[in-house]
Structures are given as structure tokens and as C-alpha cells.
Amino acid sequence: MRNDLKELIDIKERYLELSKGVLDYDKFNQYAITHHSTVIEGSTLSLEETFILLDKGLTPNNRPLEHSLMATDHLKALKLIIEWAKSKKILESKDIRELSATIMKGTGSKISTMAGDFDSSKGDFRKATVRNEDRIFMDQAKVPGEVDRLMRELSSTINGKKDFVGSNLLAFDIHFQMVSIHPFADGNGRLSRLLMNYVQLFHGHPMTVVFPEDRRQYFDALENTRRGEDISIFRNFMLNQAKKYFEREIGILSKEQKRSKSKDRGISFIF
């Protein structure tokens, strides 16, 4: 495990070096993170369509409007957690509700249940039981207290996790715990991944994504962690996602650098 972490840190440093000074890198990285997270939740937009939508405001044809709204709202939520992390804001339960309202602004709705009405577009905690495949999440009456508890744990821990490994393990743990509480009617996955990114950014570390093609493994890692009561299962999955992300970005950035260096020599070949 120690050698794996050292390799991950080395790859991360290579990624940071290559991305340094690349024009608009952060902006387009945010677009990519938005694409990955919304596709996991069912968006049919391609990566190119997501980029055009977020950069030019052009809605793709022959795609559900809901999927475009998911992307634009996710980007706003991502910018919100970036702002919070940069300002070292310590999050409370009300901030989690604000984050959820931002994620669900265009796609949420008012929901009526026997326990009362709530509005998923306004960051209201759910007042109904939610189920995902074979998993029934905790009783809705426990949700406010569990979110408060998790935010207290985060506030008491985050300043002591400055190093790359410590910050990431905390980020993965918070991700797992929040999505396991499942405090809202919808958007819990997007919210939990954004909360993970907030923890990573708090001390200036790169954000991690979950790749859409690994969606099934992601859900399996969450469920196997719950059943086995072993957080290392989810941590290892996310560490592998981080490594995959850095390696993929290194490949893209290295190719771009080769193309830039070849421009002065005439024809530029991309392979």
C-alpha cells in the first residue's frame, strides 16, 4: 500500500507540473468534472456537448433539456464549493442544503408525502424513504441529525489533514458517509462527490472524479463497503480513480505539449 501511495503521489506531481500554466486548464477541467458526475446520474450529453453547453451556452439538439440543466446547475455548484474551499469556509448543515439546492435548481420539484411536503429544488431534506437498487437508506427522521454530526466531524478534522494522502482519505470518507446518509430526494451522488472535491481543494490538492465507465464498480464499492463495514474498500476504489485521472490527464497534456513544440517545425502530427 505504501508503494502504491508513493506511486500515486509521483504521478500527481507529474500531472501538476504538466498542467501548470496551461491556458484555461482549470475552466475546462471543471467542465470535464461536471460531465463525469452528471453522466453517472444519467445524463446523455457527450463530453463535447457538455463543453459547448458550458462554454458557449448552446443547448445540444435531440437531448433531454433536463440533462442540460443538470450540467449547468452542477457547474454552478462546483464553483460554489471552489469558492468555499478557497476561503477556508467551515461547512455547516445549512451549507449542505444550499449545495443541494444549487445542484437541483433546474430539475428539482415539490414533493408531497404522508410526512409532509418538501421541495428538492430548495435544498429541503427528504421526508420520504429512498431506495437505490437493494439498499433502503436511513429513516428520514434521522437525516438532519446525521448531517449535523457529519459536518461537526468534518469541521473538527479538516484542518489537521493538510497532506495529499490525509486530505484525500478524509475526502473519500466524507463522500462515502454523505451518500450513505442520502439526505435528499435526488442529487445525493453529485453532492457527495462535490463535498469530496471541497475537502481536496481546502488544502490545494487536485480534485478527483469517478469515471462514467466505472459507474458499476463505483456503486459496487459503495455497497460492498457498507456490507463489509470496511472503508478501505471504497478508499482503494477512489485511490485508483485518482490514479486513472492523473494518468489520463498526463497523456492529454503530454500530447498537447508535443504538438506545441512541433508547430515551429512545420506540420504537426497528432497520434
From TrEMBL:
Active site: H182
One Pfam family matching this protein: Fic
Coiled coil: none
Signal peptide annotation: none
GO molecular function: ATP binding
Keyword check for Transmembrane: no
Residues that coordinate or bind ATP: D186, G187, N188, G189, R190, L191, S192, R193
Occurrences of domain Fido (ranges): 91-240
Site-annotated residues for Important for autoinhibition of adenylyltransferase activity: E41
Gene3D superfamilies: Fido-like domain
Domain of life: Bacteria
Statement: the UniProt record of this protein carries the keyword Metal-binding: no
Spans through the membrane: none
Family matches, as PROSITE patterns: FIDO
Record keywords, A-Z: ATP-binding, Nucleotide-binding
Protein name, per record: Fic family protein
